[in-house]
Task: structure prediction
Amino acid sequence: MKLPQELFVDSTSSPKETFVGGVEDLRLTLEYMKTGTSPHAKITITDADGTTVWDITTIPDGYHVKEEFATVSPGSKVKIEVTDCTARLRWCEIVSC
Result:
């Protein structure tokens, strides 16, 4: 069974962190949009092998999507920080019931 998950953040609620579960590796999708003059989004993934960081420092006007930009293992922590933008991470956890 696939369970959709998401983590939404804006400049007033940044940063946010969550735990990724499930029984298989998954792929993250990021949706983001500029809301101010100095937009920045940073995604940090921490797992048993270490830490990976994605920095998006140039965000043009409008709505943007980065589909399946990172593979994440169950048990990882995902953190998103933003300035002058809104962002939402989405993924589906595969679980056994």
The domain at 2-94 is CATH 2.60.120.1300 (Jelly Rolls). The chain is about 0% helix and 65% strand. The first strand starts at residue 2 and ends at 9. The CA atoms of residues 50 and 76 lie 10 Å apart.
